[in-house]
Write the structure tokens for this entry.
Amino acid sequence: MFDSIASLFSFITWPVSWVIVQFHSLYGAVFGPDTGWAWGLSIVSLVVLIRICLIPLFVKQIKSTRNMQVLQPKMKAIQERYKNDKQRQSEEMMKLYKETGTNPLSSCLPIIAQSPFFFALYHVLAGIANGTKIGAINQPLLDSARQAHIFGAPLAVKFLDSADKAASLGASLTDVRVVAGAMIILMSASQFYTQRQLMTKNVDVTVKTPYMQQQKMLMYVFPLIFMGMGVNFPVGVLVYWLTTNVWTMGQQMYVINQNPTPGSKAQDAFLQRLLKTATTHEQVRSSRKRKMIAAIVSKGPDRNDNERKFITGLAKAGLVAQADGSLAKSDTVAAESGVGGGAVRRQQPKRQTKAQRQSSGTATASTETVEKTGGEGGADLEKRPAAKPAGGSSQGGGAKGGAQAKGGAQKQGGQKSGQQGQQPTRSKASGKPAAARSGQAKSGQRKGQQRSKHPSKK
């Protein structure tokens, strides 16, 4: 099956074989032309060259994947709204893709672009295994490639090949299966790890969409698929596929650490590192990081939790992010944040028992009564005229005047008591009798200090 597919890409076989021959001439001068290191490193160099050419497609793949993650809630809403009209649903989806500039197939571009080189290399190695000249590989290079072994396994032999074919290439079947099996396991493990770190670190945890469930399912399905396909690949193709998986894993780790998805755990870790650097040097030197800060500032209230945490951390350090991504000092923010940098928490009052509430209410009422009574008594004393002795009078006149003054005072006190008995004095503010206001007992009440009512019954 793979032979028929590889024949479809025969037009690219000659360029691939020519690149391998050029690298082989370079490494052959160092390790020897017939060694497995020379031919193996030639294949590895081919992978590196192809992946460097595919970097623009990889960047486009990242942007498309993130746009698809952002659009998942809107896509789900369209599917629920037009679930009975598939044509209208498709039209709305295409309209959404066009408005946002998103291409669903962009996430598959690196794999699609790499497939022709993969099958062309498979075609070249199949020709080496069959002893057929192909592309830029002539007879001397063909004989050299057939003698090359990687850890005892020929480049052109497969895991499922017979012992006779392995012996014809100068190797034992055990060596072939051990080396090929180890490469298949490493290839599947690298694929699983790459997908796992993408799902656990570089996915927005605040958005739960079916897209995440699909990716999680593919994380377990893809390694099994590659393991099943790997037994039909020559060792040279396994070297190619293992190298491209390792490249993808390293490239993905760089993206996660330096350009993480907004709202992901990787973004939180990145912003914490950036915050530590910014608060230490009080500036951001990298233009790329300044652009990221400017993008966070431009979001305003639409920032996610990680971005709000970053802006708050800058404020506690006395720094403010500007619209261009630079940092400025803010003494006001630093002073308001205080030493601890935390907001003042409101303290709830302690809960009191019924006896404590009654005692506090009684003490308050008694204090108010004493203050009001003392105030009225002081006012009466101020209004009462002071008796002045007549100058130059004798002792008889002074005694007579004192008796008259005493009699007048008693008369005035009797009149005042009569007036109080006839009509009680009322307060100007509340209109209640002064006796009740001063704590005197009313008719029908017990004498002495009254027990205050419960606060809930007032």
Q: What stands out?
A: The CA atoms of residues 257 and 269 lie 8 Å apart. The two ends are 93 Å apart (CA to CA). The mean pLDDT is 74. Residues 354-383 form the longest helix (30 residues).
